[in-house]
Amino acid sequence: MRIAVDAMGGDKAPGVVVEGAIKASVEYDLEILLVGPQDIVKEHLNRYNPGKSKIQIIHASQSVLMDESPTDAVRKKRDSSMHVSAHLIKNGEADAMVTAGNTAAALAIARSILGKLKGVSRPAIAAIIPNTIDATIFLDVGANAGSCGPEHLLEFAMMGSIYSKLILGKDSPRVGLLSVGEEKTKGSFITLSAFPLLEQAPINFIGNVEGKDIVNGHADVVVCDGFVGNTVLKFAEGASGMFFEVIKAEINRSLRAKLGMLLAKPAFKAFSDKLDYERYGGAPILGIKGACLIGHGRSTAAAIKEAIRVSSDFVRHKVNSNIEESLEKIKDKILIDNNTDIN
Amino acid sequence: MRIAVDAMGGDKAPGVVVEGAIKASVEYDLEILLVGPQDIVKEHLNRYNPGKSKIQIIHASQSVLMDESPTDAVRKKRDSSMHVSAHLIKNGEADAMVTAGNTAAALAIARSILGKLKGVSRPAIAAIIPNTIDATIFLDVGANAGSCGPEHLLEFAMMGSIYSKLILGKDSPRVGLLSVGEEKTKGSFITLSAFPLLEQAPINFIGNVEGKDIVNGHADVVVCDGFVGNTVLKFAEGASGMFFEVIKAEINRSLRAKLGMLLAKPAFKAFSDKLDYERYGGAPILGIKGACLIGHGRSTAAAIKEAIRVSSDFVRHKVNSNIEESLEKIKDKILIDNNTDIN
After folding, report:
1. What is the CATH code for B1-120+287-317?
2. How many C-beta atoms lie closer than 10 Å to residue B29's C-beta?
């Protein structure tokens, strides 16, 4: 199997990307196509000693910036490492791609170059959120921030359930519909209309869930529109950053507190390992041809390695053909019964 | 000034409520009407030694349960402490009310008994979220979870800005519209339509903000519909609970970590004091006649005391007449210009 890795994606690229790629290649016996400016990537590759890894450099002269507009990334940077990675999949030279770069640009490039799976009207980005037990798949977190209809939430539910089953190994993933109360009658116009569709879907639908259920392990998959998902995700990042900033400032005020934290450090390390989202290999774009895993901009080499592993699992477990077959079935049954249009 | 306090609201009622009421009465020189079953409230009052407080018990034979449906609370429990508190305002016997009981029931009772302010189509619940500097007013967090139009977001922005100015003492509160990107062109159909309305409003509108800006101090007021607000708030509660559960478990595994935490305890105490939402006196329902402050179900006596203080500030600073006057002005100007209907 061959994985294209965007060597220029992420805040610490290409260093950590090259390092992660080497480790993944050795550990999981994968062929890696490292995509980026030949000279720069080569220099880093030599620095990390590729050893027995099976790595090839594919030249790409440009790279997409973290704050670049997706439209510009698609139209004006046709030789970017992200663009070239997607083309490798399209041309059959790679099976999947991994990038820790600009999420919106990766989505736009994946949509335009790879295209949507059969039966999918709206690809979605799924975030893997650590909970007290393992992890919850939370989607959509931003691919569809403008407007989602009930039929799109149904697609997200199906795709999330399949991902949870095939990649996280859940037997019968519990799928919850994010709303403002557990009762069937609580919600927005969109969630109220989505509820009966999810009830009829071939998934383990557990009904409405609330914000707290994204993290308490009561659901394996939580479905919402991209506006809500994106907001929750950005809030989570902001809040955890704020928490650590305030606690750090308080600890640094006193020698006693500093000493205490030194003693408690292993416990905090265990805590952060337990809630480490890097273990789950980044956020997949679900519903596009090929496989595209998006790592966090702050990805470490370990995170890149895991994203590469997950992308190979994605291909091996045939996530995409599962999605296509499942959507085929429900569209005949559920959406026609409910007179719902898929655009 | 007279404040009606629902003695039966909250997980630790009536004990902490009575204690908080006594403290508030003494410290802020306020008359308190403690509403609940005469015998029970009296017993608690004697236990806490009311001293120089000006407290009167108003009998109410029933109480609203934490999980009771709002409809039942409004229709079937007409002698509940919440109901009676609202009637005290309606009859001019109290200026404001405070409850740490069932939020949805309090909202329903306030809406039905007290009614909406002139010019307000949708009352909103505002949460006061601690940030790195002080606190952000975040609304609506659940009064309108079904559907909000652009004109409702405009009302929320105006009401939030007035509350921030009059109660939190901000000179020119920075009001942000919650969206999925800072650019004006990013958002849902509703936020995109709300943007020009907020631009024309007599507020310090800083444009779109994202989930992270609810906690990073970049905005004093963050406006969103009740579905998004409610989800973020419940996610925040769930996530912080999960965090503390996991870290506690890790610390309890090791004597060394326990000792460390003992040393670091004052720093953690300072941290939690800094982010203590109880300082801000609970969540106001904005847009109804009278003043209603909702405390958290887990409110301590200190939280009840602060909620009582804030409710008296609410009355003293004439939040309601400010809201009515401001909305009067914008409805003539903005909404007619933009052809927007207020229902």
Report:
1. 3.40.718.10
2. 12
Contact between chains at A241 and B214 (C-beta distance less than 8 A): no
In this predicted structure, the answer to whether residue B299 has a pLDDT above a threshold of 70 is yes
Amino acid at A330: I
Mark yes or no for CB contact A257/B246 under 8 Å. Answer: no
Q: A180 CB near a chain B CB, below 8 Å?
A: yes
A121 touches chain B (CB under 8 A): no
Per-residue pLDDT for B221 more than 60?
yes
CATH of A127-276, one of 1.20.1640.10, 3.30.470.20, 3.40.718.10, 2.40.50.1020: 3.40.718.10
The answer to whether B47 contacts chain A (CB < 8 Å) is: no
Task: Give the other-Cβ count within 10 Å of B261's Cβ.
Answer: 21
pLDDT for the residue A265: 86
Q: Which two tokens stand for residue A270?
A: 């265990």
Among B212, B218, B223, B252, which would you mutate to test the A interface (most chain A Cβ atoms within 10 Å of its Cβ)?
A: B212
Distance in angstroms (rounded) separating the CA atoms of residues A235 and A155: 25
Tally C-beta pairs within 8 A across A and B.
Answer: 201
User: Where does the pLDDT of residue B337 fall: very low under 50, low under 70, confident under 90, or very high at 90 and above?
Assistant: low
What is the ipTM, given to two decimal places? 0.89
The answer to whether A128 and A167 have CB atoms below 8 angstroms apart is: no
Average pLDDT of the residues of chain B = 91
CATH value of B127-279 in 3.30.70.360, 3.40.30.10, 3.40.50.10420, 3.40.718.10: 3.40.718.10
Which of B263, B265, B274, B277 is the mutation pick for testing A, counting most A CBs within 10 A? B263
Given this model, what pLDDT does residue B335 score?
67
pLDDT digits (tens, 9 = 90+) for B78-122: 999 999 999 999 999 999 999 999 999 999 999 999 999 999 999
Q: Where exactly does CATH 3.40.718.10 map onto chain B? A: 1-120+287-317, 127-279
CA angle A214, B106, B216 (to 5 degrees): 45
Q: Closest to A188 (Cβ–Cβ): which among B227, B242, B243?
A: B227
User: Looking at the predicted structure, is the pLDDT value of residue B158 above 50?
Assistant: yes
What is the rounded distance in angstroms from the CA atom of residue A131 to the CA atom of residue B343?
A: 42
Give the pLDDT confidence score for residue A343 in this predicted structure.
40
User: CATH 3.40.718.10 spans which residues of chain A?
Assistant: 1-120+287-317, 127-276
Nearest to B212 among A224, A238, A259 (CB): A238
Residues of B in contact with A239 (CB under 8 A): 212, 214-215, 236, 239
What are A65-88's pLDDT values in tens digits?
888 888 888 899 999 999 999 999
Q: Does B214 touch chain A (CB under 8 A)?
A: yes
B243: pLDDT confidence band, cut at 50, 70 and 90? confident
Q: Rounded distance, CA B245 to CA A240, Å?
A: 15
How distant is the alpha carbon of residue B219 from its chain centre? 18
CA B217 to the chain's CA centroid: 19
pLDDT above 60: residue B339:
no
Cα B167 from Cα B165, distance rounded (Å): 6
- Partner-chain contact B246 A146, CB within 8 Å: no
Ranges of chain A whose pLDDT falls below 50: 341-343
B73: Cβ contacts below 8 Å, ≥ 6 apart: B64, B80, B82, B83, B102, B105, B108, B109
